[in-house]
């Protein structure tokens, strides 16, 4: 988990509670301290705190970020994770405005890139606020799609999966 703000802490707590070993990273030491205070009770065996992206993703099967929905932030984290994580790692990012197909095209693992839209009540833990809308690229295999949906279901969040349309080339001007 990249980012230990409210969303990152909530996702880390859900992941740990589901039995996943979860590494939480943030550039701000104060966010990691707050996460440690909030999350270590009952979760200390499955929660690992990291002070760098490299340490957080070195052995990751799935990397979720909880960064602001800004294009520059998304491209930077996708680039870093693409370089530093093992080839099998799945990358997920929350976004309501960016195409996952566009973001994925900047990596060497477009088939392993997914986005999600956070339901309004998720941070407060209200599953009734709606399903987690997850979007994949057309290159994503059924096995990868199933793995991502399985992750969300295992942490107690119903999931709605859709496919981002393929990138269309810009028209040629003559």
Measured distance between first and last alpha carbons: 47 Å
Number of strands: 7
Q: Write down the overall mean pLDDT.
A: 89
Strand order of the largest sheet: 3-4-5-6-7
Radius of gyration: 16 Å
Low-pLDDT residue intervals, each spanning 5 or more residues:
none
CATH class: Alpha Beta
CATH topology: Rossmann fold
Structural class: alpha/beta
State the assembly state of the protein chains.
Answer: single chain
CATH architecture: 3-Layer(aba) Sandwich
Instruction: Give the percentage of residues in beta strands.
Output: 15-25%
Bin the helical content.
Answer: 25-40%
For the largest beta-sheet, the strand count, sense and barrel status come to: 5 strands, mixed
